[in-house]
Amino acid sequence: MAAKNILITGASSGIGAALARVYAAQGNRLVLWGRNEDSLAATAAVCRARGAAVETSCFDLTDFDRLIQALEATDTEKPLDLVIFNAGLGGSMPRDRVAQNAHAAEKMAGVNFTVPVVGANLMAERMAQRGRGRIVLIGSVAAFFPLPMAPLYSASKAGLVLFAEALRLRLRKSGVGVTMVSPGFVDTPMSRGLKEPRLFLITADAAAAIIARKLERGARHIVIPWQFALICIAAKLIPRPIVRAVLSRY
Ligand SMILES: NC(=O)c1ccc[n+]([C@@H]2O[C@H](COP(=O)([O-])OP(=O)(O)OC[C@H]3O[C@@H](n4cnc5c(N)ncnc54)[C@H](OP(=O)(O)O)[C@@H]3O)[C@@H](O)[C@H]2O)c1
Question: Would you give the distance in Å from CA 121 to the centre of its chain?
Fold first, then answer.
């Protein structure tokens, strides 16, 4: 594994915690961010037991001054090889309401879109100056469907897909890689709260293992599990009015 100095957001739970465990090897330095101190400490303890040097920090990523300051300080102290913007907020809409509460909507838009975009933008500049590094954005297969049960969630993740594609073009001669990860259903606290059936469900550990393996090969876009990769290809081929007609049943 080439990457040595790794930052993961949302490492206190689910996919982020599983990614931390995958990268917790002797010689690696992990910088793990989350909000819940106990959960983050539990992830850190497992990673230290596996031989990694671990630093943790608990703060709300939508405190943008703190986010920018923390990224700059972490990268200045020891240049980051791999930054995984994983933290996210999910959940589907209650059926008895048309729209999300305004503050919940602001929070979701911030955590799912603005935080990774602001963070990736900052890291792109620093990594390009060094001529190396990889930025990873954890999106969702929800990005490829206009989900009436989660309009803001699917839109926030769709925005990340276009951002990743454009940033990759911008960085094409810089030596810096950009990887978009689009998971289907992964068994974490986030998906356990959903009312919809969790098709092709995989564990967070399985998801993290696939992501790490494909990142090692320099993948640009990782869709997991493979069944959703096929569904996403099909969705691009099916005329949009048919996709809308099917989804409008919700
Ligand atoms: N699970 C799925 O089926 C699934 C499917 C597609 C995409 N994804 C994406 O995968 C990523 C990880 O999700 P998950 O399933 O692992 O969810 P999770 O278990 O709920 O974990 C979410 C993580 O994000 C952190 N987080 C949320 N809001 C934050 C904020 N304002 N500031 C700092 N940290 C914040 C949480 O921190 P605390 O817990 O400490 O508050 C937690 O560590 C998300 O981007 C999600 O959209 C998940």
Answer: 15
Ligand 1 pocket test: which of 190, 192, 211 has the largest number of ligand atoms within 8 Å of its C-beta?
190
Rounded to two decimals, what is the model's pTM?
0.97
The closest-lying atom of ligand 1 relative to the alpha carbon of residue 183 is: 6
Query: Residue 146's domain is classified under what CATH number?
Result: 3.40.50.720
Count of structural domains, the chain? 1
Asked if residue 116 has a cis previous peptide bond (ω within 30° of 0), the answer is: no
Q: How large is the average pLDDT for residues 92-97?
A: 79
- Residue 48, token pair as written in the block: 């230290």
- Closest protein CA for atom 2 of ligand 1: 186
Instruction: List residues with catalytic annotation.
Output: 153
CA 10–ligand 1 middle distance (angstroms)? 6
**Residue type at position 126:** R
For residue 89, give every residue at least 6 positions away whose Cβ sits within 8 Å of its Cβ, in sequence order, or none. Answer: 107, 108, 111, 112, 153, 190
Residue 153: domain span: 5-247
Using one digit for the tens of pLDDT, what is the confidence trace for 114-144?
A: 999 999 999 999 999 999 999 999 999 999 9
